[in-house]
Amino acid sequence: MRVERVATEAVVVPLARPVRTASGTVDRAPLVLIDLVTDDGVAGHAYVFSYYPWALHPLEELVGALGGLIRGEPVVPATISATLRRRAMLLGSRNLVGMAISGLDTAAWDALAQSAGLPLVELLGGTATGIPAYDSLGMFGADEAGDAAAGSVARGFRALKIRLGFPTLEDDLAAVRAARAAIPGDVSLMVDYNQSLSPVEAIRRGRALDGEGVAWIEEPIRADDLRNCARVAAEVATPIQIGENLNGVLELRDAITVGASDLLMPDLQQIGGVSGWLEAAALTHTAGIPMSNHLFVEASAHLLAVTPTGQWLEYLDLAGPVLEEPAVVRDGHLAASGRAGLGLAWDPDAVKRYRVA
Asked: What local confidence, expressed as pLDDT, does residue 164 receive?
């Protein structure tokens, strides 16, 4: 089975619940939908997320250009990724280039699993068990945090995350205490600073959050400052979580080596697609570090099921509005689709509605 062509569509999908963070508000998802079509007529699907609308078309063009480089190649995902990274060596395979390669890798895996007639999780040797999911919420002040947290529990979640990074520590504490008071004691509460603090301030606020019933503190400082991430992790008792902005497996390896965090949560399009995720899962398994996902709920449900140290699935639906069968959380868990491949199928009417010319 060989790659015949790669087709793309650029869409901007509204989020059902806009997510306010200390680094900006996300109210829509600019996505590049990828179809990797094989000479056997199988179409492997994946999508990548440009975060900003102004980055959508450059990312789409990169996916298309890199897709042209693998035309006629066998559908062997690891080989496709290695080939593209080698061809991009002088430019580098980080950021948009790395995201495009990850999307093509994931689409190749989807095509491979479809050709085998198996869900990806089964192709990888696992079973589609329900993964514990947490509701990924935005930034709420003390007057709203309690209602938001209680709403997540009412929807069946046994864990949720709120964003922090208010002007004062007192505001952060008030939001956490309001959320914590509104939910049962056995419901996990995570917080995320979205890289908004300095190392000194992260230690100060992290220590203040110790004892407040927080399951983890996510990305308190710049994610690429691994030495200071390790300093924060050493000084704060609450587990520190990073990983979504680590570019590739080598950066994740370096984060483990320096002790940059207690927990890790790779992002599918940053870590290298399915191939990169599997390498990351092996590294976290060896290091004994719990591993969660960042976004891409459909693929993550397959991959966390074969991750030895798999912990939580972050539920924030990006692509649901353009899918025939969006991922659904039931009783606080999300299971991988039972359809062949990743289970992704585009809704043509929705794609047309949200297409960006």
From this structure: 98
